Request: fold
Amino acid sequence: MEIKDKREFISSFLDRCVKYAEMSLERKIERGEEGVEIDRWKAYRDFTAYSASEVISGALDEWLDGSSNNTLPSAPEPLGSEVQTTDLRKLSHVERRGLIARVIGPRPVFLVGTRNSSGARNLAPMSSVSILSNTPPLIAMSLSSDKGGRIRDTFQNIENEGVGSKVSIHALLGDRRSALDVEISAQPHPSDVSEWDLISGGLVECESGDLLSTAIATVHAEVVEIRNLPRNCKASLVIMEIDSVTLASEDGGERRPRLIQISDGALSNDIGPAGWTHALDW
Reply:
């Protein structure tokens, strides 16, 4: 068996163990169990997920091929004697985007909701949301044209409404359904078509703002500044202050896998080896 096949086989087995542990935790929590037993299952789940990530990364290859009996893996130094430095000015846009995503990522993927001047709702996937400050609670996202050169509806809505416009940022569960919702909302749709009507989740209106029924959390924010980025950048930076965060009341602080961008064109989740990836051209 090739080393690549061994990695996939063992990590797939460990991934099943992680899923079994998660199901067991759900059952135990539903039965009202708590304390040491719950902590043990959480530790088992997290350690197994970490072990699987070590296997799939290649860090344990010497264990898989029998080349070493060392108790501790001797993974190579990340930057050894052979290094390669890339001048980003010499790369195409696609090459540059892929390299930056590989180094800076993975990043959470959100569906960002805005409204236009007539009140029509829009949803768009974003992986550029970042924290600027905790006090005051400021976040930002970079917005530009889509791959076809069309200005994104999200940016047009925010620019038209200006400072004070409201934005809902929906964190997504790390599963295939959410990945498909991202793919659907990433496509260019006519202005009279709302992405809310195309995805699996539904719109829930509440006092704090719009909610997505399939989201694991929603951040409601207000735009406080829109900045043009330097060096003739096509993107603009939208700075927002968080008004509120909405979570499921029965969540109980349990760890739930989030949808993340693991490479320039692939989505998965953030709990270690997910066992699946979703290719995405956005």
In short: The first helix runs from residue 3 to 30. The first strand starts at residue 107 and ends at 108. The helical segments are 3-30, 36-57, 61-64, 93-104, 153-161, 176-186. The CA atoms of residues 60 and 239 lie 43 Å apart.
